[in-house]
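Q: Convert this sequence to structure tokens.
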Amino acid sequence: MIATSVSMTLYVLRMGSPFRRKPVIPLVLCGPAATPQEVENQAALERFARFLVVKGYAADTQRLYVGAVGRWIAAGGSPGHVDGELVRHWLHSRRLRTSLATVNLDIKALRAFYRYAEVFYDVPPAERNKIPRMRKPPQRLPRFLTDEEIGRVLGLLPLDTFRGLRDYAMILTLYVTGLRAGEMIRMCTSHLLDGGLLYVQGKARRDRYVPLGAPLAGVLEGYLHARAALRPGKGQALWLAGNGRPLRSGRSVWEIVSRRLWQGLGIEGGMAKVSRGGRPWQGHYPHELRASFATALLQSGCPLTAIADLMGHAQLETTARYLAVDIEHLRGAIALHPRAARQNGMVSSSANAGAAGAADAGEVDDATPLP
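A:
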């Protein structure tokens, strides 16, 4: 059974699967006058791209992993074995130029590449142990918006135009359902199901169903009428541009959300480490609305497990990050514990006693003549 699975994987890597997306085009590592080794490296990179498709990696993950492995091979890395000293030197030079999160992504890409090399190049599994471990980046609290701020943004959108109605529906969908930008861009008209349910194509094939609620369902119904007026033909993409063509990628969602939040709030936001066109991204981003969705449910008393299911998190620890956002709310809750109240009473009693003792000591010092 294992041999059959391996042989099928090798066949798909060589011939390609007709049932999946085309792999990401790898970096071109060799030119017309390439050496045999450069040609083999290029072929290995192309097969690795197909390997990622077979394993079901997302398109963005394919692009990032292939780019990282292409840089590693261009720096002297070999598909057949791991040079421990070279990989440590390469990762060190990467840390000097990029963020810790980017270096961790390079390490993930190398591990995936040599996992593929175990099948195609008979590389021993122990070779992956030469790749350094990832370093844990400092924890950053997710940024979120209040319900009043989001209502202010929605209230300024012109609903008498197609773009205004589309942006209203997109921002409200992000806030009410907690979708990612990539999940938004993959939405089709057939994903809007009867009974107010939305079928979501999640990350790593973790698809899920999310309830819409009557207000959002009504807004999406109005958007579908405006969408039909553009005559999109047989296309199933839900979100369209003004010319009737589908939005290109999740970057379009970023730009729409950033522009509308900037107009509605008049404040600058964003992440300095996210680049766009060679410039640091200084706008708002859709994940703010996803964090706002999780924070609003937490403040309303929704169980953490239900929020994890709605957001499509594979691990509950990922959802637990949003607990830190609402830390003041949790401090108020823990203060109701009887032991906390008893401890506060003891602290206040000892503080009063200490203050009284200090006052008595002060009176004695005042009565004592100075030398």
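The chain is about 60% helix and 5% strand.
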